[in-house]
TrEMBL record:
It holds the Pfam family TIG. Belongs to the SEC5 family. It is found in: Midbody, Midbody ring. Its main location: other. This is Exocyst complex component 2. The exocyst complex is composed of EXOC1, EXOC2, EXOC3, EXOC4, EXOC5, EXOC6, EXOC7 and EXOC8. Interacts with EXOC3L1. Interacts with GNEFR/DELGEF; this interaction occurs only in the presence of magnesium or manganese and is stimulated by dCTP or GTP. Interacts with RALA and RALB. Interacts with ARL13B; regulates ARL13B localization to the cilium membrane. It comes from the Eukaryota. GO terms for biological process: exocytosis; protein transport. Keywords: Exocytosis, Protein transport, Transport. Residues 8-91 form the IPT/TIG domain. It comes from Castor canadensis.
């Protein structure tokens, strides 16, 4: 296998800790020569390639997934450079659980639809707890 450049080297990640699905910016050297050159990205042992956005040879943005390890390396693999190494690590935090009496955000989503039975436009307001759902 002939290599066109040095293996990827991850030298920074921001933020360096977070809960699953945290958006992170990875910085380093030789992180690929284009989006299709990026063939592997793992953080704490979790494959993050599907959420990866290749920005440049020194920057990749992605989301950290549900990893088995609480702390681990960021490994970038490219077609042109092979499997890389990391001088930094990411710490995966456990999401805070919200108890039954704790305050939490109320999520509201609206959905408009056409009811063919009544020949009218209708609106459904979808609300997640702790608020109560309502119909319009």
């Amino acid at each position: 296998m002939s290599r066109f450049q040095q293996p990827p080297l991850v030298t920074g990640i921001s933020p360096n800790e977070g809960i699953p699905w945290t958006k992170v910016t990875i910085r380093g050297e030789n992180l690929g020569i284009g989006p299709i050159d990026l063939i592997g990205l793992t953080i704490c042992g979790h494959n993050c390639l599907l959420t990866a956005e290749w920005m440049s040879a020194s920057k990749i943005v992605c989301r950290v997934g549900q990893a088995k390890n609480d702390k681990g390396d960021i490994i970038v693999t490219t077609k042109s450079g092979g499997k890389g190494t990391s001088t930094v690590s990411f710490k995966l935090l456990k999401p805070e659980k919200i108890g039954i009496l704790d305050q939490s955000a109320c999520v509201v989503d609206e959905m408009n639809y056409y009811d063919m039975r009544t020949d009218r436009n209708k609106e459904f307001l979808f609300v997640l707890p702790p608020c109560e759902p309502s119909w319009h």
